[in-house]
């Protein structure tokens, strides 16, 4: 096996970079693959060619369909050779080529022959290959051999069959389930891995049958499992059983706990750890149960193996969140891990210590961390900063030493993200701990004296402008702020001017002095700085006397802008100087998702420190706001319901469109969310032409086109329909996207002037009865049902016809009605023959509706249902029945 | 590649096995999870993982890190970097056992000279070892001797192959073996 591939490179010993695949080319290798067709096969050469093919695939090279088929057919010829090494490679390449169904037929007979061969290696590999590439139809033919293979005396063959069974269970469960007798036998195998694979398969076959899993676990925990891997599986299954049975036993003693504890004394570390982890994750674990697990994890902490230390400290870190007291014993070992070579371990140790530490140990801990901070990467420092922040909020009394720590590391070298994390933490502490405010602000002031990040400087200046004037002695911050006007770049200078103005507006006694400073700024070299100074001098009153600032001036300086900045920027750009002055009220308030390019637009001042950017509207409130901001829809009244987005295009098409249905009392608005996925195109004047001929009760009243739709920045267009008030009208709508398409030069990003009108067919959209129903749950269905009374009750029975099982029928009815299932009744236990499902909702017109569904299986597969509806209005109760009757 | 369906249940699963060289280039890789759908996604993962682990000393004992919400265990030898990736709630020791099994099996097959050149020259052995360790994400075998044994088919069934070799083929392979030993 160890021969070099290319003999000609005899002098390759001198070359450091020598590779047998140097200069390899797909075309040449495909040519070489012709040797597979030779009459006299050279197994060694064929193996080498296969290796080269595998190398190419492994490097990410792809074969075209034709190439792959050609290679595949050539490879099938190699079954003629009886060379074992070559056959082994043939198996691997077939799996890599993943042939199509019609190609598979070619190798099926060869593989089936190998499956029954006397050579174990053939049998094992042929099974794996065949199960990998086959579809269901072939499976029935080879099922007999697979069952034999599961109990084969060669463990490799048995494992191959079992592992294949695990994969096949996903696609052909009914066939694999028939093998459980053989699998059960294999669980008792003496071979370690066979036992592991058999157990995994057996559990997967039975995982929905709680009783069977319970039985499996209780028989195996008595001690017939040898393999550590199988033992790990058993521990997982055991904790599953414990989880599911916990609610049934109130006696206190947990079933199978003894087994888990026993596993802590297993000889394999893998098993010990699995058991310890399982114990720590038990629901409502007691400290008595926890202790032995913590003890073994503590031993792992001082292991020489990093993997072991990592596993232990990670688990303890999780335990510390819920049971900090239990972990305290490990603190000494944990502290020695602070200097661990592996920084993942060190960071986990620190954050665990910060969680378990009590008030008295904080100071000592901070000292240790200080020495450690200098030699870890920024990303780990951020994790530590976050842990310190939460520690400080937990022990507000310790704010002094923690704040000192933060300010010290703020002065040290560090990247932007790290510095930002520190600044954010200080800001949060200032907000939440009043005592920390003054010292925190001074730390920030000192920081901006020597800060290389413009963004952080402006953010801090903004924050100072809000918090500074409220302190006991605002004047002491002025020096720091005014220094910025002398020493910094224009952006920071402009920020400093605004902050000064805020001090002037808020603190009347400081006003005269602020005026002097602002006047000096009038001679700044930068336009923006001068403009701001002029603006503030004028709004605050030019005389500079100690007077109170007017409310509207304060509102102007500190009030939030209720217009999206992007829209304001665009409107300002479009404004042409004329007699008419710019009217801020003309700026649209419609929230448009910012395209990426515009986010980077310069000169835009962020609105708040770390404030989240305006995201796409997702909740009903956001939808309502969005719709109200469009004048055409403003008089539709209160929004009743917005549906989840329905895709109108297939994934990965040129234009992705989904629609949200907004239901009003007398109107329906379709919101089409469009995304243009072609970088070379700009769409303009995008509308959706809706044909409502199959929705007779609807009449189109308005449509709002989308002016432009650049690449990869979603936009919305709307179409509104009028419908009879309060009537749950249903119908089908066909949609056509119409737009003007303009070519975009990808290098400059600029669109051509002329566009072409084009259309794009979208899928149909339906308004169904469920759209008029809100999912609103009730906490106690029985009470609600009783208090509703039988006055408006309507009961009837329906036959639902043949169904796969009860669960499917239940789901179908729930989806049809669009109501909220109550008390977990939407879950149907497997194999049950009858089921009751409780639903609740609010129907359009704000009518509360409760539904009780009783299902039963009648005959072999026929499902019958009894539907009882109670509501505040008998007409609505009738409507529910109509929905079900017509559905 | 078939779907990755093991993550949903409690069965231990391997997401990928990577063997990279000292510059982060692929020697042999095998992905079992759809988490990295394209070759460029795979390359990006390899690149950033390689950069992240480059400075650590994973030569005597395997090292470990959390990377992109996955557990990655890695071990370096000479100019080769071995990685194994699993989900973030996977048993770390179990993954380490798989990596160690693969590593030792390759060491056995390459007679303890594991470096990039030897690995490339015996790439078929590497592919076969990976094939015997994990099958579509499911752990197949962790015992190094068993893996190495399955890959060393000639030894297992020597009589059968010898009888099928023609005399000239046998001579050729003997000659080649001799030149190789002389060159060393």
UniProtKB/TrEMBL annotation, chain A:
<dbReference type="GO" id="GO:0006888">
    <property type="term" value="P:endoplasmic reticulum to Golgi vesicle-mediated transport"/>
</dbReference>
<dbReference type="InterPro" id="IPR009028">
    <property type="entry name" value="Coatomer/calthrin_app_sub_C"/>
</dbReference>
<dbReference type="InterPro" id="IPR011989">
    <property type="entry name" value="ARM-like"/>
</dbReference>
<dbReference type="GO" id="GO:0030126">
    <property type="term" value="C:COPI vesicle coat"/>
</dbReference>
<dbReference type="InterPro" id="IPR037067">
    <property type="entry name" value="Coatomer_gsu_app_sf"/>
</dbReference>
<comment type="subunit">
    <text>Oligomeric complex that consists of at least the alpha, beta, beta', gamma, delta, epsilon and zeta subunits.</text>
</comment>
<dbReference type="GO" id="GO:0005198">
    <property type="term" value="F:structural molecule activity"/>
</dbReference>
<feature type="domain" description="Coatomer gamma subunit appendage Ig-like subdomain">
    <location>
        <begin position="622"/>
        <end position="767"/>
    </location>
</feature>
<dbReference type="GO" id="GO:0005793">
    <property type="term" value="C:endoplasmic reticulum-Golgi intermediate compartment"/>
</dbReference>
<dbReference type="GO" id="GO:0000139">
    <property type="term" value="C:Golgi membrane"/>
</dbReference>
<keyword id="KW-0963">Cytoplasm</keyword>
<protein>
    <recommendedName>
        <fullName>Coatomer subunit gamma</fullName>
    </recommendedName>
</protein>
<feature type="domain" description="Clathrin/coatomer adaptor adaptin-like N-terminal">
    <location>
        <begin position="27"/>
        <end position="541"/>
    </location>
</feature>
<keyword id="KW-0472">Membrane</keyword>
<dbReference type="InterPro" id="IPR013040">
    <property type="entry name" value="Coatomer_gsu_app_Ig-like_dom"/>
</dbReference>
<dbReference type="InterPro" id="IPR002553">
    <property type="entry name" value="Clathrin/coatomer_adapt-like_N"/>
</dbReference>
<dbReference type="InterPro" id="IPR016024">
    <property type="entry name" value="ARM-type_fold"/>
</dbReference>
<keyword id="KW-0968">Cytoplasmic vesicle</keyword>
<dbReference type="GO" id="GO:0006886">
    <property type="term" value="P:intracellular protein transport"/>
</dbReference>
<dbReference type="GO" id="GO:0006891">
    <property type="term" value="P:intra-Golgi vesicle-mediated transport"/>
</dbReference>
<dbReference type="InterPro" id="IPR017106">
    <property type="entry name" value="Coatomer_gsu"/>
</dbReference>
<keyword id="KW-0653">Protein transport</keyword>
Automatic annotation (TrEMBL), chain B:
<dbReference type="InterPro" id="IPR022775">
    <property type="entry name" value="AP_mu_sigma_su"/>
</dbReference>
<comment type="similarity">
    <text>Belongs to the adaptor complexes small subunit family.</text>
</comment>
<dbReference type="GO" id="GO:0006886">
    <property type="term" value="P:intracellular protein transport"/>
</dbReference>
<comment type="function">
    <text>The coatomer is a cytosolic protein complex that binds to dilysine motifs and reversibly associates with Golgi non-clathrin-coated vesicles, which further mediate biosynthetic protein transport from the ER, via the Golgi up to the trans Golgi network. Coatomer complex is required for budding from Golgi membranes, and is essential for the retrograde Golgi-to-ER transport of dilysine-tagged proteins. The zeta subunit may be involved in regulating the coat assembly and, hence, the rate of biosynthetic protein transport due to its association-dissociation properties with the coatomer complex.</text>
</comment>
<dbReference type="Pfam" id="PF01217">
    <property type="entry name" value="Clat_adaptor_s"/>
</dbReference>
<dbReference type="GO" id="GO:0006891">
    <property type="term" value="P:intra-Golgi vesicle-mediated transport"/>
</dbReference>
<keyword id="KW-0931">ER-Golgi transport</keyword>
<dbReference type="GO" id="GO:0000139">
    <property type="term" value="C:Golgi membrane"/>
</dbReference>
<keyword id="KW-0333">Golgi apparatus</keyword>
<feature type="domain" description="AP complex mu/sigma subunit">
    <location>
        <begin position="14"/>
        <end position="155"/>
    </location>
</feature>
<dbReference type="GO" id="GO:0006890">
    <property type="term" value="P:retrograde vesicle-mediated transport, Golgi to endoplasmic reticulum"/>
</dbReference>
<keyword id="KW-0813">Transport</keyword>
<dbReference type="InterPro" id="IPR011012">
    <property type="entry name" value="Longin-like_dom_sf"/>
</dbReference>
<protein>
    <recommendedName>
        <fullName>Coatomer subunit zeta</fullName>
    </recommendedName>
</protein>
<keyword id="KW-0472">Membrane</keyword>
<comment type="subunit">
    <text>Oligomeric complex that consists of at least the alpha, beta, beta', gamma, delta, epsilon and zeta subunits.</text>
</comment>
<keyword id="KW-0653">Protein transport</keyword>
<keyword id="KW-0968">Cytoplasmic vesicle</keyword>
<dbReference type="GO" id="GO:0030126">
    <property type="term" value="C:COPI vesicle coat"/>
</dbReference>
<dbReference type="InterPro" id="IPR039652">
    <property type="entry name" value="Coatomer_zeta"/>
</dbReference>
<keyword id="KW-0963">Cytoplasm</keyword>
